[in-house]
What does this fold into?
Amino acid sequence: MEKIPGDPQHVLVVEDDLPIALMIAGILAVEGYEVDTAGNGRLALERIAAKEYDLILSDLRMPELDGVGLYRELERRQPDLLRRLIIITGTSWHPDYQAFLEETRVPVLEKPFSLSALQKLASQVLAAAAQPRR
It folds into this structure.
């Protein structure tokens, strides 16, 4: 399906903490994005298989399939989506996650975050993903 200029951009928020997921979704909806949520990486993969997303924001620590597992599945199934992924976490200090983040260089938004930090990083990732690959 081809995107029509002026259509809202579609965002998937992958977060197992429902109040945080709803807060992020609400902020992005006010900004004009169409937002869906998923409580873990497995549900996110189901949503991604059914719909195209311009941006994916994912927590690292989640049940069933965490952010690292989601990244690895996207890497295998739809590597182009990795350019449109932001990790939202409060556990980037954990050695396993630290190594993953250093290896992948995925943009990270540290919890707690400000509204302006969320808006800025989302805009930067969307703009970078819109640029042709070199």
